[in-house]
Hints:
The chain is mostly helical. It has one domain (2-325). 73% of the residues lie in helices and 6% in strands. It has eleven helices and three strands. Strands 2-1-3 form a three-stranded mixed β-sheet. A hairpin with a 2-residue loop joins strand 1 (259-267) and strand 2 (270-278). Helix 2 (32-47) crosses helix 7, helix 3 runs antiparallel to helix 4 (81-95) and helix 7 (137-184) crosses helix 11 (285-327). It starts with 6 loop residues before the first helix and ends with a helix. InterPro entries: Cobalamin_biosynth_CobD/CbiB (IPR004485). It is a multi-pass membrane protein. The chain crosses the membrane at residues 6-24, 58-76, 299-321.
Amino acid sequence: MLMGLGWPLLTLLMAAGIALDLLLGEARRWHPLIGFGNLAMRIEKALNRDMARRLRGILAWLLAVAPLVALSVFLLDAAGSMLAIALHAILLYFCIGLRSLRDHNLPIADALQRQDLPAARMLTARIVSRDTKQASEADLAKASAESLLENGNDAVFGTLFWFAVAGGPGAVLFRLANTLDAMWGYRSQRFQHFGWAAARIDDALNYLPARLTAISYIVLAPTLQGKRRALHCWLTQAPAWSSPNGGPVMSSGAGALGLVLGGAATYDGEVEQRPPLGSGQVATAADIRRVWRLVLNTALLWLGLAIATAALIHLAAPAAADILVKETPHA
């Protein structure tokens, strides 16, 4: 484990990072990811030229991500042992976005329940790229539910997975890569070649976390029927979705809660027919809260599994030491 951290200590740091996020939420000023986004825009502006766009995109990704990941490793190595341990939790806090999902989506549910469509449309436009000016209540609830399910993986579970693999620098690597995919990973004329590396790297880093998230949504489905439906939706619907990782996450989550997502959405004034996700009822304002609870419970499930694993390792260590002592030949 990075910096010699054992799994029990890493689990405590994971819990601390999640707790900081839930207590403090996003930093209101000078959030590192906002600064990184500004840096990425400057790099893209300088390098996204007509010739060799794919190679320029790879170079841009390396220039944006590699120095910051290296800096996080350097800070951990340079700090004293106690400060370095605390820095892992602080880095996780800056990378994870669990409370942010709640703070951006539950106000949409509140506005819809007040039947304040203008406010709900404005709030939804802040979290999705689709047009919301003429969106109905069902359209807005669907957009929020899809955003919660997919970003639960991107902003929370992928970050936790890579934190478990490589501590704070692992979380930094994943979130920076995911941010670049959100900025550059489009199939537009501007980014089709330049953003190729950002999209493919994010797909690779997200592959295992997305499937673990989909499994978690199945496990946490409130009924046995919901579990079966979630698995069926994953297996039958995800392959048709354009995102190799978004498909499993959203189809299993929608199936677990008995919601119909996907379908028509308006982008740049044109209606796009997307593959269906889930099965059951059309999403409503109340369902936004159900989806949020599923995401929150999944985070608690992952943390609980990490704590249980740490406890088993702690209990097994003395027994393993006794076995080694008994098997060591005496002079």
